[in-house]
Design goal:
Two copies of one chain form a homodimer.
Chain A lengths: L2 H18 L3 E4 L3 H7 L11 E5 L5 E5 L3 H6 L1 H5 L2 E5 L5 H9 L4 E4 L5 H10 L4 E4 L1 H8 L4 H24 L6 H14 L4 E9 L20 E9 L8 E7 L4 H20 L6 H14 L11 E3 L6 E5 L12 E4 L2 E4 L3 E4 L2 E6 L2 E4 L8 E3 L1
Parallel strand pairs in A: 1-5, 3-4, 5-6, 9-17
Antiparallel strand pairs in A: 1-2, 2-3, 7-8, 8-9, 10-11, 12-15, 13-14, 15-16
Helix pairs in contact in A: 1-7, 8-9, 10-11
Chain lengths: 368, 368
């Protein structure tokens, strides 16, 4: 990443501010800050903020004791001014003195409510808005470098899935299997294991189950949905469904339908289609097979510096797909109390269709 | 933790709502939710919220696909009603339908700004406030069980500090030392290593430095400030200062002053003193020795389910100390570009004074 890319992102954010008639964006530590200026600051109670106005140089407001850390990030070489505040000052008052009474200001979507409420209490004459639409307009369109980052993350999590059959066995608990997977997520190059779902038997029917003390049994479907963050912050996320022993015909038939729906949705991806249409393609196939009511979540979410970010592939999202959009395609079905299944890949919208970043076999993986 | 404790916390929150004339608290995933009902939900873009009103039973609003996860938490055995929303509904509209037009509602301090802004857009007739003062009133006063949790966390991080001299040596980078410390934080019983500061030489003068590729040199002061979260969510945080080779007399004299200031501030802790007075005790000692301007941060922060939480021990905080308050005492001095030092323990306010939870020697630890 050269600094030119950060400068370009800041310029594009200023363009978004102008286009949407918003005077200012205040960006606190989190993925937006990392995206815009490469500063991976830990979100803490003291206000750190990148301040971006339409026609003035962006600057950073930092607690005095974190100035060195800010300057050690790309902020230093970008030449951004760093204004500091000390322990007995109010950074919110300082911000108000710097900016005056704006008509509108926007804040990053992940800012802590406590900070936003303090900003609102200080800027009483100002309408506060979410900066999510402005920054998503940038972050949704991944650069070649970002796509490469997501590709490496995808390969790393594929290597973990390749090893899951070593650990998954009747008689072990979900927690034990999850522990092995967590170590492998780190060993394969991630710096954090962000989530580990090992949903066995009835737990496979709870989409956001994590792990439990449940002992895995013969006859269990096991949904394994795992991901982590790479050193550059880009995330992986992939799901495969395993089965302990021989599945019955009904489950196999449903799984084949799911597989078909996942492949069809992926094939549908290309510039110009709407985000919701990708969901609809899979949902129609599942509905036709009587599984529509069991597909209880949207088909996917954007991914990049966050596991879940714009665009969301959900009914009602008419955003038109562009090259560089990166997102999951993960239909599932869930029979409450019985069994579920999910197949998930990360996909990038390329000029000629989907570029698929997870490439382990998508079939039901039978563990003997 | 018995469910009776969660029920008691919910009752006390309702008392706070009545006492402060706030109609409702909306608590999203994060430490407040974990504290109040034991649900350690991952903060994601879909709204999950505990809704607490003054005179009605609390309930949980959950995405439909996370209902099983919510019920698998203590929420299930507490008997709280779980209302769900599906992917094509707006949870904010649903909340508004449930609650009607309130005059005031409060939100947890960590709620994402994007969610708060959606609540504000929906509840246009309602004043939104921070729930931090209400919930801090509960969380600041640690129970015997919480103090025991913090004690175990303190013992775990003490065991890591005991081993730091094995890894800290001239010729190694801060990153290499930090990597060893990170593994030990997990090996000693934490589930996450939350922060690892290895500030060597000039980096020791940057209080929130993390680790870098800098090679540690003879003659370096090294500030090692480390902590993690235990399986029950309670955090550790302790700093010791190491020195590679023989420190000069000036540094040693300054360090002895710092040590004296840390001990004096700890000795000052007892019910009835103000939070700011603990800071002042250390600051006066450092100022008298000419180090006041180099002590650029407050003396401490509360700790519990978050590393930093109320009460903050800072000039201007006149909150009166009570038994059960738990916080850090961590004076430091920082000569920019040269060297710094910090000594930090976690302390609980007991009836007869400070109960100190970190007990490694506080002297400068010389690495030969």
């Amino acid at each position: 990443m050269i600094n030119g890319e950060y400068a370009d992102r800041l310029n594009r954010l200023q363009n978004e501010l102008r286009a949407r008639d918003v005077e200012c964006a205040i960006i606190s530590p989190g993925p937006d800050l990392r995206y815009l200026v490469g500063y991976d600051a830990v979100p803490l109670e003291r206000l750190t903020a990148l301040v971006v106005r339409r026609d003035q140089d962006p600057y950073v407001l930092s607690p005095f004791l974190e100035k060195s850390a800010a300057l050690a990030s790309p902020i230093g070489s970008l030449g951004l001014d760093v204004q500091t505040w000390t322990e007995t000052e109010s950074p919110y008052e300082l911000l108000h003195r710097h900016l005056g009474d704006l008509s509108t200001l926007s804040v990053d979507g992940r800012m802590w409510a406590d900070k936003l409420l303090r900003i609102q209490a200080e800027f009483t004459a100002t309408a506060t808005l979410s900066a999510v639409p402005l920054i998503s307009a940038l972050r949704m369109r991944k650069s070649a470098g970002e796509i490469q980052s997501l590709r490496l993350a995808g390969e790393a999590i594929d290597r973990v899935h390749a090893r899951v059959p070593e650990w998954l066995a009747a008689g072990r608990t979900e927690e034990e299997v999850g522990h092995d997977i967590g170590k492998a997520i780190l060993a394969e190059g991630h710096v954090t294991a962000d989530f580990i779902i090992v949903g066995s038997g009835p737990n496979s029917a709870s989409p956001h189950h994590e792990v439990s003390a449940r002992v895995i049994q013969p006859g269990d479907a096991v949904v394994v949905d795992i991901g982590g963050s790479m050193p550059d912050g880009y995330c992986s996320d992939s799901t495969r469904t395993y089965f302990i022993g021989e599945p019955d015909d009904d489950y196999l038939r449903d799984f084949e339908t799911l597989h078909r729906a996942q492949v069809a949705a992926t094939a549908h991806v290309r510039p110009g289609v709407t985000c919701e249409s990708v969901d609809a393609v899979a949902r129609d196939i599942l509905t036709e097979a009587g599984l529509g009511d069991l597909f209880i979540h949207r088909i996917g979410h954007g991914i990049g510096l966050e596991t879940h970010e714009d665009p969301y592939l959900v009914t009602g999202n008419t955003t038109v797909m562009e090259t560089g959009f990166a997102f999951s395609i993960e239909p599932g079905f869930y029979r409450e109390g019985k069994a579920g299944a999910r197949i998930e890949d990360i996909v990038v919208c390329g000029e000629d269709g989907a570029i698929v970043l997870n490439n382990r076999p998508r079939d039901l993986i039978v563990i003997d």
